[in-house]
Amino acid sequence: MKNKVLILTGYYYPSIKAGGPVRSIINLVENLSNEFDFYIITSDRDLGDCKPYSNIEVDKWISVNHAKVYYTDPTKLKMSKLLSILKEKDYNVIYLNSFFSFKLSILPLFFVRMQLLKPKKIILAPRGQFSNGALGLKSIKKNAFIRLARFFRLHKNVIWHSTNILEKENIIKNYNSKIDTVIANNLTRNYKELNFEKQLTKTKGSLKIVYISRIHPMKNLLQALNVLMNSNDNITFNIFGPIEDSSYWDECLTVIKVLPKNITVNYNGIINNDEVNKVLKSNHVFFLLTLGENFGHAISEALLGGCPVIISDQTPWRNLNSENVGWDLSLENNEEISEKIDFFVQLSQLEYNKMSELAFLYGQKESNQEKDIVSYKRLFSNENCYE
Questions:
Q1: Residue 196 lies in a domain
Q2: Does one domain contain both 335 and 215?
């Protein structure tokens, strides 16, 4: 009999605004549904939306892409209702996908501490929330809760899921060194049979750059725009993603208005997941100076779209220059970032084609590896259970 795994997450399919965590869970279900029965409790609407998704039944379990999903209005999800849903089935594993979510992380842990729930295993994936960049935003409130959680031992017997060694170190540094932490890299779609098919004109002196991410301080679009301020080359900067923070976007617009005429910026709104690869194939370089990522699905997708990348050194994607697929750079050095943009501007068609194919092959090589699948099988098994 398969283990029953209950996933609590703020957003799930068909969300297109909530970014990488949604993709992580979709990929998890797609890759492991033969091994485990997945149940998902999530919001009935997308990030920032006031209305629920159309054509989705709410407040009942429905089948969605190899999982049973319970969509509900988060504003009406009271403590008694959540406890009732959680107790409907005897789950082997409860998998939480946020450290700070009150309803979908803190309350379930409270139920367990009060012995109202007795799963064999509880796993918490903080999804990059302990990175220095993430904790630097609303730091007073976040640090206060971390201290309270430690004091009340809210996370006693919880297994922490880190997607890489850096995230593990951040959790230990910012929360507690005496925790049980398991590393399992985020899974991707299966790209092993994908072929390189990018055909994009590249002339010296011009460049098409693409950004695909949420418009939020964490993603650091403002610095990317400021870096372009000093460029003398003909650059088109295509921006895709939901405006999650309107005041931050206003700051970005202020910079966009004073950019030199050789820089063209296009904001293209929200992009559906099935359109991402097409967009990447029509741009030369992916640009994301994020303050922190526990994985970076957009980076993985960019490489598979044949886009070499210029990213910050705050992601697991490191030492990219040694693979000749781009750079992971310090956010403290705008001049170096500008130099790498100029490098791409000056590439010829032949030089770009070679680098583009290398990016694709590297992205394909780094997609689902057997060791990652095995790590998740162990994570969701009955091993390391507590009484």
A1: no
A2: yes
Answer for the pair 294, 265: CB distance below 8 angstroms, yes or no. Answer: no
Residues 343, 213: one domain?
yes
E runs forming strands in the chain: 3-8, 36-43, 61-64, 67-72, 93-96, 121-124, 159-162, 180-183, 206-212, 234-240, 263-267, 285-288, 309-312, 326-329
Instruction: Give the angle 356-359-364 at the CA atoms, nearest 5°.
Output: 130
Domain ranges, residue 263: 206-366
- 217 upstream amide cis, omega within 30 of 0: no
What was the pLDDT predicted at 330?
97
- Is residue 266 within 8 A of residue 237, CB to CB? The reply is yes
The count of domains in the chain is 2
Q: Is the pLDDT of residue 281 over 90?
A: yes
Whether 197 is covered by a domain: the verdict is no
Identify whether residues 145 and 258 lie together within a single domain: no
* Residue count (the chain): 387
Stated pTM of the model: 0.87
Tell me how far apart the terminal alpha carbons of the chain are, to the nearest angstrom: 21
Give Cα 286 distance to the centre of its chain: 16
pLDDT tens digits, one per residue of 116-156: 999 999 999 999 899 888 999 899 999 999 999 999 999 99
CA distances from 52 to 10, 18, 24, 43, 185 (A): 13, 14, 22, 8, 32
Q: What is the pLDDT of residues 44-97, one digit of tens each?
A: 999 999 999 998 999 999 999 999 999 999 999 999 999 999 999 999 999 999
CATH code for the domain in which residue 347 is found:
3.40.50.2000
> pLDDT-derived band of residue 385, with 50, 70 and 90 as boundaries?
very low
Strand 121-124 to strand 93-96: parallel, antiparallel, or no bridges (unpaired)?
parallel
Give Cα 274 distance to the centre of its chain: 17
